[in-house]
């Protein structure tokens, strides 16, 4: 059974930083492209970032490019999202997902990120 458990969210002031983690189990993590998506209050899911199975190629939404960094540790079956220079518009529930942007599987409860002064 695929399980994706996000953590690391919280309340942070504008300009602050957070690092999200996603613990994956139930599949061969190192073989899969992984993705972060987010859902702002009252909005649909938005793609944030994707990383290839080996971690060598990454992609970002324009809204987070230069501020967020996706990474993974295949020895720990864990996906990360380092978020810097956070803005109020980054407020959302963040989810990790198995697979690429075009066809991903999302399972976890997500982790809430709130950017507010």
Rg calculated over all Cα atoms:
13 Å
Unreliable stretches (pLDDT < 50, length at least 5) are none
Helicity level: under 10%
Order of helices and strands: EEEEEEEEEEE
Structural class: mainly beta
Q: Could you walk me through the main structural features you see in this protein, from its secondary elements to its overall organization?
A:
By secondary structure, the protein is an all-beta fold. The protein contains no helices and eleven strands. The chain has strands at residues 3-7, 10-12, 18-25, 34-39, 45-51, 58-60, 68-73, 78-83, 92-98, 105-106, 111-115. Strands 2, 4, 5, 6, 9, 10 and 11 form a seven-stranded mixed sheet that branches.
Layout of SSEs?
Elements: E1 3-7, E2 10-12, E3 18-25, E4 34-39, E5 45-51, E6 58-60, E7 68-73, E8 78-83, E9 92-98, E10 105-106, E11 111-115
Parallel strand pairs: 2-11
Antiparallel strand pairs: 1-3, 3-8, 4-5, 4-9, 5-6, 7-8, 9-10, 9-11
